Structures are given as structure tokens and as C-alpha cells.
Amino acid sequence: MNQLQKLLNEMGIVRQNSPGLFTLTPLGVRSLEKLVKIVDDELKYVGCQKLQLPILTAGNLWKTTGRWESTGSELLTIKDRHARDYVLSPTHEEAITDFVASLPQLTHKQLPLKLYQITSKFRDEIKPRFGLLRGREFTMKDLYTFDKTVEAAHETYDLICTAYNRIFQRLNVPFVKVVGSTGNIGGLSSHEYHFPSSIGEDDLKICSACNSGSNAEIATTDVCSKCGSPVKQTKGIEVAHTFLLGTKYSQILNALFSAEDGSRSVCQMGCYGIGISRILAASVEVLGTDSEIRWPKLIAPYSVCVVAPKGGSKEESAIQLAHFLANQIDQIQPFMQDVILDDRMTTTVGKKLMEAKRVGYPYIIVVGKKSSQPVPLVELHDLNQNTQNVYTVAELFDYLKQTVKN
């Protein structure tokens, strides 16, 4: 595990149970749920509906599609008491296609279907590493679409890609979209979304002129296929992947619909993944330092941390001010239910501040030596702007409200 992933563990965001398996603490769950909310919002905006499939998928479905054998040793499988095979699903193409095939009287009027879930997935990594970046159990958003024609499937694919662009733009972490391999999932074409990072496991070739690119494993030249300009090579952490599947799964698993002429036709499919837990770790890798976590502002565990004085210190009388600030800021949008108060009585202000910076709360308000004056002053550490300033209470509220407007 590298330094930043160790820091997630040290600061109580995650705890490693065993190689590749992690517990998300309440702080980690808050970040995860904030990210899920962003994904939910953008997918629902383009007409996607949320469901939840069983984590266990019948082994016979994977055998029917051929992936029981082709996936190899990374596929985690079990047998029940009746000796029936099941897959601890790393993805759910077989399960969702079987579900759609079971729908009674599916017609062209009901298409496209855009169905997604956010659940645990499993992969028997031979050597789990980099913390949440490559674990044996992980949280993934997987979306599956069903269309009536190839043309309609392309339109849906483009629509979902625009939603993906908005998700990553809202996170405000540098990202690139590149052409990728269809790999074991298969299909007609695919794209990958990466956070450029030196610890990334993928080599990418990006055009220096038009910014289009591809995974180096499928790139054949050092010249952009779109504009002919030179390409540069960089490394990236894959955080999302989209596939135009065609009829690879729907044909063999009989996901059919009634066409306008009354005939039975095969659904055209797409599948789209986002590594939810991986984004938590990857964003920290891109934004953080060796000693301090930095989050995309929208998914920090808490937006504001108020640091209260130590009990028994000269500033103890200002503890009440710290409680007042936390309560008042908690009533300002978008900070409602997003303020944490560090009121540990036996810990110094200095240590609390250091720990708050290491956790990476975007706004840290320190109620310290200057807070017991007739006109109390507080320190505001804005980690996004990398600034530290002293304000009166009124000036502090003005700063936070102005930040919201911007």
C-alpha cells in the first residue's frame, strides 16, 4: 500500500481487514454516499432507473455466455448445498440480460431501458495492492442499456457518455476519456475514463493537439488517428469504462422485444461501469500530498471542521463559541448536516488542526488564542485555496456564503 492509501487508513477513512478487503468507517461512508448522490443525480437526469440485482449470479448463465471459462482465476465462485455453481459477481451482464429476457411482453415502445445499480463486486486478485485502487471487493456502479436498433444504441451510448463527463466535471479532478479494449466483457467498442497519475497501471497515448487518445495496449502508432498530430504517453488510473455490446449477451440469453411489425427482435445492449470506491482512492492520489489527504470538495467526509480549544487551557472559555459556530454554519446551504466539531477535551488545538488537515476537510475553523478577545477572532484554513486568514465571526460567515456563490 502506498503512502496516500496508508494515510486513508491512518486517518480513519478505511481499515484494511485482510489483503484486498476493507471496512469503510463512518467518514469513508459519508464520502461514498456523497459520490453516489452525484452519480444518481446525473444518471437519473438522462432517464436511468435504479435497481438491485443479487450479488450471486447463477453459474449456468456464465457458462452459457462462455465467461465461466474465459474470465479465468479472477472469477470468485461458490457451490451451494445442492452443488449448484454461483458467481460472486464482478459485473452483471448475464444477470441483467436474464432479467430483461424474463420480462413479459417487452415491446419497442418500452425501449430504451436504462437500468443501473451500485453494489459490491468481487474479483479474486492474485496480488491486491494500492489499497482501494485494486481490492478483492469493491463498490461499483454498473449500468445496462437495451435498445431496439444499432443506431438507437449509439445514441444511448453517447447520452450516457455525456452523463459521465458531467460526473467527472463536477468532481473537478483532471480526467481523460480514451478508446479502450473490449476485453473479457466484449462488444463492438469501448471507452475508458482515467485520472492521469504516475501510479496508474494503464499506459495511455494522448494527442497533444485534439486531446483524443487510446489505451496504449490498442494504440498502433505514435500519431493521432484523428488529426495526425504527435501523441504523448502518460499513465492513468482507470475509474470508469463504457462498452457498446451489440447482441453478445442478448442473443444467447434471449433478451427479445416485439418490434413494430410484430416480429421478435434481439435487444442491442450497452454496459457502463464506474468504480465508486476506486474514485475515492484515485482522487486522493491525484489531489493529495504525501502527508495530507485532499478531496474533491463535493465528496469530502465533512465540508467544515470546527476546532474547539482544549479543556483546561487558557482558551477554554471560547469552547462555547466553537459550538455556536458549528451550529450556525450547519444552517448555511450547502453546509447543512456537513459540519463536524472537534471538541475533544484532552487534545490541543495544534494537534486537532494537524489531524484535520491530514483528513482533508476543505474548511477548517480554529477557535484558539484570539477567540477569547472582546471581539473574537477565528482562523480559517481554506485547503482548496491553500490560504490561512483571521476573521471576525461576521467576516467568517460572509466568506463562507461568498464561497457558496462562487
Automatic annotation (TrEMBL):
Enzyme class: ligase
Cellular component terms (Gene Ontology): mitochondrial matrix; mitochondrion
Family annotation (Gene3D superfamilies): Anticodon-binding domain, Bira Bifunctional Protein, Domain 2
Subcellular location: Mitochondrion matrix
Known EC number: 6.1.1.15
InterPro entries listed in its UniProt record: aa-tRNA-synt_IIb, aa-tRNA-synth_II, aa-tRNA-synth_II/BPL/LPL, Anticodon-bd, Anticodon-bd_dom_sf, Pro-tRNA-ligase_IIa, Pro-tRNA_synthetase, ProRS_core_prok
GO BP of this protein: prolyl-tRNA aminoacylation
Catalytic activity: tRNA(Pro) + L-proline + ATP = L-prolyl-tRNA(Pro) + AMP + diphosphate
UniProt domain Aminoacyl-transfer RNA synthetases class-II family profile: residue ranges: 20-296
Keyword Transit peptide carried by entry: yes
Function field: Mitochondrial aminoacyl-tRNA synthetase that catalyzes the specific attachment of the proline amino acid (aa) to the homologous transfer RNA (tRNA), further participating in protein synthesis. The reaction occurs in a two steps: proline is first activated by ATP to form Pro-AMP and then transferred to the acceptor end of tRNA(Pro).
Protein's UniProt name: Probable proline--tRNA ligase, mitochondrial
Annotated source species: Daphnia pulex (Water flea)
Top-level taxonomy: Eukaryota, Metazoa, Ecdysozoa, Arthropoda, Crustacea
